[in-house]
Amino acid sequence: MNTVRNQKQHDLMTKTPMTKLILRMSSPTIVSMLVSSIYNTADTFFVSQLGTSASGAVGVVFPLTAILQAVGFMIGSGAGSRISIYLGEGNTEEADKVASSAVFASVLGGIVLGVLCKLFLAPILSFVGATETILPYAEVYANYILLGFPIMCASFVFNHLLRCQGKTAFSMIGISTGGILNIFLDPVFIFTFNMGIAGAAIATILSQTVSLILLLVFVQSRRSVLKISLAKISGGFGVYSVIIRIGAPSFFRQGLASISSSLLNNRVKIYGDAAVAAFSIVGKVSFIIMAIMLGVGQGFQPVAGYNYGARNYRRVRSAYKVTLLIGCAMMSVAAVICFIFAPNILAVFRPDDPDVINIGSFLLRVQAAVLPLMSVTVSTNMLLQSLAQNKEATFLALTRQGLYFIPLIFILSSLLGLFGIQITQSISDTLSMLTAIPFAVRFFRKIKEKEAEWVDDNTASNEINMNVFENFEP
């Protein structure tokens, strides 16, 4: 039975027309990423009804959840990329070992991170941008969210384990069910049960628990190529080292999002709660849009990894081009919508606060202007990471929210004030796109060389076989 399933998986990844395959693989990932980001934004929407300070609190706690995402994405994407290559090679035993070890590492990582944040919660929240009026709301919200860290981290990993074997529809169902549930539970806990901002956090944890249960059931079902078990958890550091190395770009990408968000909030808070709330809302909206591009990229990763493992280099090149075009088209549509309707989008969250709307509208339009460029950055980074090009992928992951953003936020905020802070991300995005281009060109030159070597080796092998038959005398 396993052999039949593996053959079907091989045919899907190596023979399906590329545009059809990328759309098939990325559509569920886009939906799951969108729903996931939308229900995070739902917290901001419903909490915003409690006031501007409460709205800012959700944004202030974001750096903590971003660090958790960094750990979860590092483990999940690192394991997923390695598993895709193993499956392409037909090595399911090693794939199971990596998957089981990744799940164990995610639960442990969530517990450790939750405890550390809890021990130093107040100073951490103050550092990441909580004003005196925002801090009480942020502490209440964070205290509950931290309890769910192990659950959330494991969910990230299970999500990647389904995607890396091409089971993106199962991944979508698991994530979407939890997301939709959260949207319904938020108003119930916040307003009906009169729990305020604590209700939003509790609704999120309950929803994440439901997602985790569904994802676990799918990974352990008969339709999954992978099988998780305690017996397959690695006791040595070797497997974890591979996961960390390959997943490092995801860690830096998400981890730097936490650091940059902290620095951003720290710089913005001197302009008042309205400015903090405006940046928080635009951050959530931008996260929804980026979820589309990340969904396309994550759908592309198993295709690239599987075909690379199967030495089908032409399909790797084709997958990248298709991903780039699809991502650029989607980002362009999102950019137009955000640019035209920016004030209306901000008014959905804080209709009675003109300062939030004015500050946020300009910020959203500036960021929308460079959205199409992100298709190059994300596609290239996902490509390198999925094929274990660790150093290159890690460097690219450092650029957007680190190498460019961090110095720019200090320089531009000092020179241009609030306007400088508003344009920082867009300038950083442009620079990171320009940096990604030579990496993509260099990689595909190497792919051409590998392709030529593969053809030469096969030709030589065929010639040897022909000579054997020609010289054979019965």
From TrEMBL:
GO MF, any single term: antiporter activity
Record's bilayer topology term: Multi-pass membrane protein
Domain of life: Bacteria
Chain segments annotated as transmembrane: 21-42, 54-77, 98-121, 141-162, 169-191, 197-218, 230-248, 274-297, 318-342, 362-383, 403-421
Alphabetized UniProt keyword annotations: Antibiotic resistance, Cell membrane, Membrane, Transmembrane, Transmembrane helix, Transport
Subcellular location field: Cell membrane
Major localization listed first in the record, in broad terms: membrane
A GO biological-process term: response to antibiotic
Keyword Transmembrane helix: yes
A Gene Ontology cellular-component term: plasma membrane
Protein family membership: Belongs to the multi antimicrobial extrusion (MATE) (TC 2.A.66.1) family. MepA subfamily.
Designated name of the protein: Multidrug export protein MepA
